Structures are given as structure tokens and as C-alpha cells.
Amino acid sequence: MAAARAQPAGPMKRPLPQEAAGELLGLLAELAAFSAPGPGVTRLLYTPEWCGAQHFLQERMAELGLEVRMDQVGNVYGRLTGSEPDGKVILTGSHIDTVVNGGRYDGAYGVAAAVTALHYLRMAFGQPLRTLEVVSFCEEEGSRFPLTFWGSGNVTGLYNGSEAAGYADAEEITLAEAMAACGLGAGVSAVRDAQFAGLAGDAGDAALGRRLIDEVPAAAASVEPESGRGFTGSAVRSDIAAYVELHIEQGITLERSFRSIGVVQAIAGQRRYLVKVSGTANHAGTTPMSLRQDALAGSAELLLALERSAVAEGDPLVATAGRLEVYPGTPNVIPGEVQFTLDIRHSQAETLERFCAALLAEFAELSGRRGLTLAVQPVLATLPAPMDQGLCTALEDICRQQGKPYRSMVSGAGHDAQLFAPRCPSAMIFVPSRAGISHSPEEYTSPEDLTAGLEVLTAMLYRLAYTDNGDTVT
Amino acid sequence: MAAARAQPAGPMKRPLPQEAAGELLGLLAELAAFSAPGPGVTRLLYTPEWCGAQHFLQERMAELGLEVRMDQVGNVYGRLTGSEPDGKVILTGSHIDTVVNGGRYDGAYGVAAAVTALHYLRMAFGQPLRTLEVVSFCEEEGSRFPLTFWGSGNVTGLYNGSEAAGYADAEEITLAEAMAACGLGAGVSAVRDAQFAGLAGDAGDAALGRRLIDEVPAAAASVEPESGRGFTGSAVRSDIAAYVELHIEQGITLERSFRSIGVVQAIAGQRRYLVKVSGTANHAGTTPMSLRQDALAGSAELLLALERSAVAEGDPLVATAGRLEVYPGTPNVIPGEVQFTLDIRHSQAETLERFCAALLAEFAELSGRRGLTLAVQPVLATLPAPMDQGLCTALEDICRQQGKPYRSMVSGAGHDAQLFAPRCPSAMIFVPSRAGISHSPEEYTSPEDLTAGLEVLTAMLYRLAYTDNGDTVT
Questions:
Q1: What is the mean pLDDT of residues B24-53?
Q2: Which B residues, 235 through 264, put their C-beta within 8 Å of a C-beta on chain A?
Q3: Distances in Å between the alpha carbon of B293 and those of A307, A315, A443, B335?
């Protein structure tokens, strides 16, 4: 391994070779093969497909010269230790899980690109000044258990795994049972071997799996072998100096504006509500129009007010009623009650707060005029997560240096990066999603755009880990 | 039995005695006891409760001096034969079935009042000039099988029972099987006895049931004993000179206008449609407002157009979207498709036609402006059924003579009378429904209003069957 030498800030001396793009595309295809049957990619937390993918990544990263390990909840790391003694880590990656019948890019792209970037950086520049780590988070989507951001949430302290051990999936399998089936949790070393042997298909790999899992940091040593109900010990890390995540946009902003790269300024905060509008169910034939309290007609007025207000507020505010149910829901009965969901997002906390307050006030006024009763239940409130301005500026510099068309933007979707943003300088790089489609087998990003994202990520990691500029993030 | 004598037109010589009101209320209470468990009254076609009620009615009418019989589909008749030889019949009654957890007045009131009226008329005036018959139709609601107006439909030729024999209820019991369980259909005389014995609770009543069923008119003699799959023979009647139905309003028009009696001028025609609005499902966080094709926001605009147009058209037009479903129906996904039902009613065919055409044109325009695709599927179209103007005038005369506050009105709900209206002079009398509520255990009409309706019905039947005025309807 070459000796670590501090480089002056500036472009990487050697640009990413053509092979790196091929390596990235190959890795994406290999990961996509770990899927339950059906269209697209289905890789739910702690399923055999998921175990297979995380095992495969550990093997591949080990082959590429990284030190690998899996933490207590199944996050996988690949490490390239730096020469500086402070122990701080530049972390990059994304999540390995998918929704049911999802695509091959959401999450997996950020992981595969991080692996490729570290491989190339190690080959081209040897040991970095600052430690670089790839992370493949075990779970972000919350598709099997109601545990969105389970992977990054355990790393940042949002979750304490043992509290969630009783959560059950649609088949009444608890989180603890699902973890045990993957060889996670306590007192299950035999299961671990069997699991990895089963996935890898021969006994030799069982030993590899064993080795990979045993390479846990000190914190994990507190796992209690006698606990069969969940797991103990913490996956929390306090050594992260910066977090950089590359991800597909999952929207149409980049495609519509003909940009290859999005530099995310903030991840939008969300407010979710359940709205109930109550009127009077009555006979559709015998109740004159003037004597109705039709909960659906009233809700239609609220939905149009929602749309009108959101358009008037302007980008990046988005507001959606995605689910709506009518009671009793019979063709010849005037609806007596309607329930619908609200999902409202903006990058600035004050704007989000003001918009929601004004909207709900308008809802109350419109309902009152019709003699309808309104009940609004807050369901979720997350704060916007601003990305680090220094890192954003660095990403914009890199795009200009590489001659890539880019734009600043807000992420309307949630990402693992929003959990790191309050704790360390964090950044996100977006690449276009064709037609804005994601969470679908139709999800697609062109090889050119995938490569562009890899090039920007690699240059950013070079700057953070190999040059003096990296100091700005510690 | 007193000899039949033609009376001059005018009020009945002897008004209805106090006991008649008590008899009506008692009969309603007795009928309400024939119900499946649960709130309110549940008496679905061809269930044990239904069989019990029709059997009870036959017994009671026989006791009151009427000739009783049940036809091939389970309609029950009670006859007071007139002295005139033309064989024409003045028919009065309603239906005995209910919705699930319905009330005790919808349908049953018209049957119980008809029985009470004929009892009183026979006692007070003896044999009529024209034959009077009570009918208790087996089915109007269509709550067990998709066979709305099954009872009156078989009498008027809308249905041919054997074609519908394969219809199944929610528990996959076919109509033919359900009929056989009630002793209807062919080759089931043993079942008949057992059925009626079971309902009546002792062997003596089985003989009565046997006798009642065997008193079928000539047409029913064609029932084929070897057919086990349905029934043959016809319940159609061509001897009806007039049909008069007393019913609760099921609306709030009478209550709001402080009238005891509604003289129905017409039963509204109905158009039903299934509307499908298609847009593009997309991520609620990453899709800017300006780039959406939100099927629910678009549908909200259509629903408000529906309400606005109906209010502008004015009474008696009513328009309702009672069921609406959103796909995929997830809080964080912009709705890609919405389906909703339309139920539009008016008493005049031309108005209904014009309104629907204009509305659907507006729907198409509004959808098109948003880039949404509209598909409209007609589901039902019934013509308005005007009541006989001579009978309406006679009812208004009677209300004035009796000093009862009344109003002319349109029935927005469907009734058995609409099947007779194209075939013979037909009339409907409404009494108030408290708060307009029906199809509910809360259904209620005061004893005073129930009695008022009975008095008007009795006077009307007297006029039709005992006086020279009756000639106007033949």
C-alpha cells in the first residue's frame, strides 16, 4: 500500500479510468441478482436475499482490499484506514434494502459507487490521510417492518434496537426472529455459520462469513449470548467526521433541466396528518341538494384548497393527499365521513410550519361553512435537514472542474443523510431518474449518468480523505 | 258478508275507528319480531325470518277474512273479492324484505296498513264492487341477491325467475337453493311442510302452510316437480286495474315542510355511472406541483362540478358520488387513478338526459385540462315513472276532506310502484320519516303520521273499490 501523502486541494491527479464505470455497472447487476422472485428487485430486511447481498458485499470489499465487518443490526462496513491518528472516519454509502418490486438503483447505487470509488482511490493513491469507510445500511425503506431508517438510525442513535425487537412483519415474524434467522442478535453463532454457508453455497464460505462477522468493533463485544429476544450492544458511532451519499433523484427535476448532477442543499422536512371530515350519511335519492352535509363534496373542496395553496407557495413545497376513504362508500348513500392523508414537505422549517397552520385554518373554515366536522390528527413531523454548505460548495467546484452540468436542489424524499446532518457535515449527490420513476421495476438511470455520479463522488472523497481540504470537515 | 253496493264518490260514510290505528301498530311490531339477530330489523329474501313473516301474514290475513296465497316467487296476496264480474283487481301493499339492519317501517308499513285497511273496509262495508288485494312483495331492496324489485318485477314481467336461479348470495347460496329452502320452486312439497313446521313451531301449522301454498292460481299449476334448479311457471299478473302503495318517505322533505302526507307525482329516473380518472402515480416528495397529474386532485374538481351543477339545476334533481377509491392509496404516493360512482336522479326523462350529458361533457373538459384520462361507464338507467294524475288528484281531494296537511312531491327513492306505473294507474302515498333516516335501526315515523297514512290509504281504496269513482281507473 502506498504511503499516505497530503495533497493540495484541487482535482484528482488521475481521473477515474474507464474500467471503474464497468466495475460499477457490474456490481449493480450482481446486487440486483439478490432478489425475491417477481418483477424488479425485492430485497427486504433480514430476508435470505438481503443476507445474500450483504454477504456478497463483504466478500467483494475484502477482495478489493477493504477491512470489512457487519455491525449488530446488519449494517456492513468496508474500511480503508487513514494515516492520521485521530480515528475520525469519512463515511460514504447508502442502503441495501428495497421496497417490494423496487428497482436496482435506489440505495444500491450509492453502495456500489462507494465500493468502486474506494477501490479506485486505494489503487491510484494508496493509503488516505483520513480513514474512508463504505457503509451498506441494512434498512432505509421500512418495507418489511415499520422501521424506516433502521440502519442509519441505529448508527446515529435514533433507534435502540432492543426496543424494536417485538415489531412484527406482515407474516407475524418479529424483528428479533428475523434478525436471528440472519445470524444477528445474540447466542446464534451456529446459525450465523449455517446462514452464510447456505447463502454462499459451500463450506469454505461459511468460514469467511464467520470471520467477517467476528470482526466487530469493541462496542459489539457487549452482545449478550444468553439473550434470545433481541440484541444488546450498540451500533452507534461517534467517529464520523463527514457523511457523503450518492443516490438517484427519484424525481424529474434533473431530467427536465438536463443536468447530470444534483447538489442537494437540504432534505425536506415532512408533516403528515390524518384528516377526518364528518357530515351526515343519507339517502342519495331522497335528500335534496340543499339539505345535505356531504363529507365527500366537502373533502373535494379541501383537496382543491390544498392544491391551490401548494401551487401558490411555490417550489420546493409539495403537498399530497395520497389515501382517501369514504364511508359508508355505497353508490346510493351520501358520504357521511371521509378520511384522507396529508403529506406536506418543504426544506425550511418556518415555511413548513406557516404553510401547514394556514392550510389547516382554511380547512376548518371551509368545513365549518358546510356544517361539516373536521378532525386533524398529526401523524409525523420531521425537521428539514440542511446539508453542509462547505461540502455543497466543494461538490459544485468538482462539477465545474469536471465540466458536468449540475444544479442545486432540495430532496423531497427522505434519505439516510438526514440522520447524519444534525451530527456531522453531510452531503448528498443526485443523478437523474428516468421519468422520475422509482420504487418500481421501471426505475432507470443511464450508464452515463451513473458514471457521472461516481466521478463526482470519487473526487469528493479524494478531497476529503487525501487533501488538505479535508480539514474543513473535521 | 254484506252485499256490495255502489256508493257515490265522496268521503267514507264511517271514518276509521281508533282501534284500526292500534291494529296497524300492533301488526308492525309483530312483523318487526321476524328479524335476524342484530340491531334493527334484518329480513333478507328467503331466509327463515322472511319465511316466518310471510307465513305470519298469511295466517293473519286469513283470520281477518281474506283469501290468501303465495305465488311462485314468494309474493303473498290477501284477497277481498268484489261483486263485479270483470275480474280486475285494485292492488295495494309494499315489500316485506329489509336491508341488513334496517328499520321496521320501510316496506312493512305499506303491507301492514293495507292489511288493516282491507280488514276495516270489509268489516265496515262488506264486499266491495271491485276486488281488493293486499300484496306483500317478497323482495324490493336487493340486499341478499342482486335482484332489486324481484317481487314486483316477477309480477310485472321485468324478471323471469328461472333465468335468475343461478344468482348467488354472499355465502354462495344460489337463488334456486334459497327458494327451495323456503319451499318455493319445484318438487319440494316435503320441504315446504318442514319449512313451515319449523317456523311455526308445531305440526299443526305445517298443515296450514301446506294449505296456503297450495292455493295458487292456475298459472302456478305449471310448476314442474322434476325441476330442482329453479322454478317454472309465471307470477305475472294481467288483472291489476290499479296499484296504490303507502310508504315512508325516507327523506326529510315532509318533516321540513310540516306535512303529514306526500302525494307522489313521480318516482325519479336514475342514471348510474362508474367514473375512472387516470393520471400518473408518482413520489409525493420528489414531484413538484407543476409536474403532477394527480388523479385525486382532478377528481375533486369533478366532484365540485357535480355538486355545483346539481344545485344550479334545482330540485328535484339530486346527484351523488357515494363511493370513491384511490389507487395506489398510499400516503406518500400521488394518486395515479381514482374511481367513483355517480347516482343522478330526476322525475323527468328529458331533464335527466340533458343534465347527465352536460355533466359528462364538463367532466371531459376538466380532465383534459389537467392531462388526465377520463373513462365513464354507464351502470344503470331507469326512466322516471310518473304516477297516475287521476289518482293523485283523488289523493289530494282525500287529504283536503280529512284536513291533513299534504304536499305533492317526487320520490327520489325507487319503489315497487314504478314497475306498475307503465302498466296500470298507480299511486304512492308518503308519510314523514324522522330526520329523513331510513335503512337504519333509527328509522322512525310517529304513530300519528302512521295513522294519517292509513286513513288516506283506506279512503282511497274505498273510493276505488266501493264507489262509482273507481270506474276512472279501469
A1: 97
A2: 249-253, 256
A3: 12, 16, 19, 8
